[in-house]
Hints:
Layout: H1 8-13, E1 14-16, E2 22-25, H2 38-43, E3 47-49, H3 52-62
Amino acid sequence: MPKMKTKSSAKKRFKLTASGKVKAGQAGKQHGMIKRTNKQIRNNRGTTVLADCDAKVIKKKFLPNG
C-alpha cells in the first residue's frame, strides 16, 4: 500500500497547533482595502484557528501525517 502524501499547497497554508487545531492566515487582505473599514483591516491581521468542521476536512484530506 503506498504512503499517503501531504498536499504541498496545504502544508504552506496551514499549521497544526499542539492540541490538534488548524491555524490559517486570515482571509480578505489581498486587495480592496479601500472598501473595508479600519476595524476589519485590524481584525484580519495574523492567523486564526479554523472552525472544527473545516479543520476536520483539512486534517483528513490534506494533512494526513500532521
